[in-house]
Amino acid sequence: MPTSQDVQTLIRKKNRLRLVMAVIIMALYFGFALGYGPLKELFAEKMADSLIPFGLVYFASLIFSFVIIEMIYLKAAKNLDPKDEEVSHYAK
After folding, report:
1. How far apart are CA 45 and CA 81, in angstroms?
2. Residues 89, 7: contact at Cβ < 8 Å?
3. pLDDT digit string (tens) for 38-59?
């Protein structure tokens, strides 16, 4: 039977992981948002011979990277959970 200390440790580990992932996502997003002003010409530039601007491709790649980061978080959080379902129930 898991103790209260086990549950608190699991919650602390998950919170730390959430914070790390949130900081990564915020850095990527604000890097895009803050870079848009000074690099306006780069973001408006068309990709090769297409009509698609670089800024749109960059933003789409950000969304894709956010999904990948979320998948990494889900996998890591699942690995943190012990096999005991009672502790998992308290940590949700």
Report:
1. 46
2. no
3. 888 888 889 888 899 988 888 8
Q: If you count them, how many residues does the chain have?
A: 92
Residue 7: partners with Cβ closer than 8 Å, 6 or more residues away: 87, 90, 91
Angle between helices 54-80 and 4-36 (to 10 degrees): 170
What six digits make up the tokens of 1? 């039977």
CB 89 within 8 A of CB 4: no
Name the residue with tokens 């803050």.
34
pTM of the model: 0.70
Going from the C-alpha of 48 to that of each of 11, 36, 52, 53, 60, the distances in angstroms are 48, 20, 9, 9, 17
* 22: phi then psi, degrees, rounded to nearest 5: -65, -40
